[in-house]
Write a structure and sequence with these properties.
Helices cover 14% and strands 36% of the residues. The radius of gyration is 29 Å and the shape is flat. Strands 1-14-15-21-17-18 form a 6-stranded antiparallel β-sheet, with helices on one face. Helix 3 packs parallel to helix 4. It starts with a helix and ends with a strand. The chain is of the alpha+beta class and 435 residues long. Strand 5 and strand 6 form a beta hairpin.
Length: 435
């Protein structure tokens, strides 16, 4: 199920071209690596995105209508230079060329040539060219018009773009912090596709503001593969504002494809179901463990509980798969209504397969472990089976200190004395939800 999720996202995005306002040149010094996005050496975050490039691509950049263009055809508003102030002579000459052609370049005056190639003449040419572009002196901030372009220093890319009246490509509106979310924007043919993710362990309901207008927004769920038109959205000043809801660390694709008038707005109040609790499935639960791995063949849980807290060592130290089964009666009529099963808490791996009335409903692996069961749920009696797994740390802890013939595991892993038992099992509470 996790691989399917990744495959859906990559299938869509690999067809597209990235949309980013900033191209960051990470320089020629050693060691030199492109770090994690959130380190933001380009100074673009939040609200704007950036790409990272090397000297090979830098030397191939072109300028079209004031934007730099890489060989693959992606356009950027701004080139940002590294703050370590080390460049090659070839890179510095290319910066001058791009400025003359109309590019905007942001970065400090380089102070050191990256190598001794070319000897003293190259050193002299390098510093003369730096003085020509940035001027002589140590001004902390500044701007200079060079050719058809502009050279800027002493600002972050984020600050500069906002100062030029460029609005965020993506922004969360409301009390939530902008850093609670991450995004990436691609164009796929004539469509704009945003992948938006919740970076926190809390569910988020917020207004997402996108730098797109004149297109009907759609919401695609990469976890389930379901897609639907956004019925709630507002267009204004070249932007589209959409109410979004994301589960803990959840994500969605927001896709803009079909043209609509820029005056068109959605008529709905929400783009997501308004889940209501129908009933709790309280058990009792019949739980089957794998006896090969030391678990009991079958035991009754009158209520859901953490395996690691069990007084029965066969459960306390169990690692592997366990099947929970129960029957419950649903008094609500299901005709014409949507229903979901929500497990809420599954530890420690956080993955479960669900079978309802003999129908395989699939796998849940993300909080709140919710799955639509419309079509399988029936009024009256229902049979439910939930299969969960945990990792092998609890069994390793249980085997610790025992002679090999009494252990269930065979491993060269050093079972550390400070390892603790991990919460495991279906912890719930398990709910039936309706729309």
């Amino acid at each position: 199920a996790f691989i399917q999720y990744m495959s859906r996202v990559q299938y869509v995005l690999q067809k597209g071209k990235i949309v980013a306002d900033v191209l960051y040149y990470y320089g020629d010094h050693v060691p030199n690596i492109a770090t994690l996005k959130e380190s933001d050496p380009a100074g673009a975050l939040p609200g704007f995105d950036y790409d990272v490039t090397n000297e090979d691509v830098l030397l191939q950049l072109k300028v079209v209508d004031g934007e730099v263009v890489v060989p693959g055809g992606v356009h950027y508003r701004l080139v940002v230079l590294p703050d370590h102030k080390v460049l090659s002579l070839k890179a510095l000459k290319q910066i001058e060329k791009l400025l003359n052609q109309g590019a905007t370049v942001l970065g400090p005056k380089p102070e050191r040539l990256v190598s001794l190639v070319g000897g003293q003449p190259a050193q002299k040419e390098f510093h003369q060219l730096a003085d020509k572009l940035w001027g002589i002196g140590e001004a902390v901030t500044g701007q200079r018009k060079i050719g058809n372009g502009k050279l800027v220093w002493g600002q972050k890319a984020h600050e500069y773009l906002l100062g030029e009246g460029i609005v965020f490509d993506f922004e969360s509106v409301g009390p939530e912090s902008q850093t609670d979310f991450d995004y990436i924007h691609y164009t796929v043919g004539e469509s704009d596709v945003y992948f938006v993710s919740n970076q926190t362990e809390e569910p988020k309901s917020f207004q997402g503001k996108f730098r797109v207008s004149g297109k009907q927004p759609e919401i695609w769920d990469p976890v389930t593969g379901k897609t639907w038109m956004a019925g709630a959205f507002t267009q204004m000043e070249g932007l589209t504002i959409i109410p979004l809801e994301l589960d803990p660390y959840g994500s969605c694709l927001v896709v803009f494809t079909n043209p609509v008038p820029i005056s068109a707005n959605g008529k709905a109040s929400s783009n997501f179901p308004l889940y209501r609790e129908v009933q709790e499935i309280s058990g009792p639960w019949q739980v089957k463990f794998d006896t090969v791995w030391g678990g009991p063949a079958s035991v009754t849980f009158n209520e859901l509980s953490d395996w690691s807290q069990s007084a029965d060592e066969r459960i306390k130290y169990y690692s592997g798969k366990a099947e929970y089964t129960t029957e419950f009666s649903l008094s609500e009529k299901v005709d014409g209504k949507r229903h979901w099963l929500q497990l809420n808490e599954v530890d420690d791996v956080g993955i479960a397969s669900i079978e309802l009335n003999g129908k395989d409903m699939g796998i849940v692996w993300t909080k709140p472990f919710r799955m639509e069961i419309t079509g399988a749920l029936q009024s009256g009696q229902n049979q439910l089976k939930i299969t969960v797994v945990n990792n092998w740390q609890n069994r390793l802890v249980g085997d610790r200190g025992k002679p090999q013939e009494q252990r269930f595991t065979k491993t060269n892993v050093n079972i550390r004395d400070d390892w603790k038992l991990l919460r495991s099992g279906l912890l719930g509470p398990v709910h039936i939800l309706g729309d």
